[in-house]
Amino acid sequence: MTAEATSIRNWQPRPDFVARVIRAYRLAIESYRGQSVPRWFSFGPEAADIHAALLAGSERARAMIADPGSSYLFYGMDNLFRDHVALASESGEAQSGRSSIGLETLQRLAAEVCGSAPADPEALIACLDDSLGIRVDFPNPFAGEAGLRTSRGIISYRAPQAVYQAWRLLEVCKRAGGTKVLEIGAGMGRTVYYANRLGLKDYTVVDLPATLVGASCFLAAVLGEDAIWMLGDLPEAQAGRVRLVPPTWLNACPERFDVALNVDSFTELRREDAERYFFDLHRRSSALLSINHENNWFRVSDMPRTLGIGVPTTRSPCAMRHGYFDEVFLFSSGKTKRSAGPLLRLRWLALRPLSLAREMRWQRALAKLGPFLGAPPDRSDLRQDALKSKPGRPELEGAPHHTNRRRA
């Protein structure tokens, strides 16, 4: 018998932190300098409205940052968005189902980390404490998170997965001989939180501007507003903080990292974008931990062969998620190329039309699903900006035009 629960709001961000988040989002958008801003994870059915609110620094943006579950801020990265929150509050059956899922994922986690899985949730958590050497908790800083009630917080579906990912990351760091971490696509940031608790303090997150807003909110709420660094903060303040930066920052950054982490995103990207990340990571990191599914048109395990990279790899089914594979690529031991050759660059260029067609299919599917997710049935405004963009300078729906960029 599981005990379900739904969290209540208890985080109140400081006004200066809200201003930092809005400033960082504007700067991240600006960093693309007129190039295409990826639409993936762009606030779901309300992308244009939320994007405009953040650019304007409106009261709606401030309300979203304080209470993300009231909007689509976490859409695509966690279940804590408006429609899921509403369903949990209206349906006892939905609450009970999420509680059962929370217990099931907790049991899987304990079985993998501890080697046993007691039936009692409190015994499971105590087992994790002993194995991980920390007091495992499940913070719920925002209203509407539904799941299994425990003395350490409400356990929703993604929380035990994040503990597992942080544990695996620590293991790979020990194998690589370093603790400087780069995570590509951290979503809400739950894994970052647990990695921080396990001692991995030198941590950089690279993600899209839309997703970084949600990660900023969660990590500030659970680690403290001064524990994170965003675009616009003082450069000298980076030391000891979790850095949250867009892909454009990484492209201009010469730093090396000990271990890179990617969970549930490489196979969701355009193939050439995923390969560019992989190719770059093999030159600037010692190892990559990938936990991704193989239901799309390419696999992470295909990329070393395609890119001509000889790299020792370990591979096994992920214990926490059916259909996912846990793979470790030891770049420091492999023979790698210095730069992408002409043939590889031509291949990436040839892939672009296929990727654009795939993205258009995704956008059409999202528009059709909008009414079922609580969005207005007519979302043609999401397509108008793309139609208005000049050739060669496509922009995100609702992205700032030149006048807006000057004001920012």
Characterize the structure shown.
The structure is a single chain. By secondary structure, this protein is α/β, with parallel strands linked by helices. 46% of the residues lie in helices and 13% in strands. It contains 15 helices and 11 strands. The protein has helices at 15-30, 47-56, 59-66, 82-90, 92-113, 121-132, 158-176, 190-197, 209-223, 247-252, 271-284, 303-307, 342-369, 381-388, 402-407, and strands at residues 4-6, 146-150, 153-155, 181-184, 203-206, 228-230, 242-245, 257-263, 285-293, 313-317, 324-330. The strands form 2 sheets. It has an 8-stranded mixed beta sheet. The protein has a 3-stranded antiparallel beta sheet with strand order 1-2-3. The protein is globular, with a radius of gyration of 21 Å. The chain starts with a strand and ends with a helix. Mean pLDDT is 83; it is low at 372-408.
Largest sheet: 8 strands, mixed
The Cα radius of gyration reads 21 Å
Number of strands: 11
Side-by-side strand order of the widest sheet: 6-7-5-4-8-9-11-10
Instruction: Kindly estimate the percentage of residues that lie in beta strands according to DSSP.
Output: 5-15%
Q: What class, by secondary structure content?
A: alpha/beta
Helix content: 40-55%
Shape type: globular
What's the total helix number?
15
Secondary-structure element sequence? EHHHHHHEEHEHEHEEHEHEHEEHHH
Average pLDDT works out at 83
**Distance N terminus to C terminus?**
53 Å
pLDDT < 50 stretches:
372-408
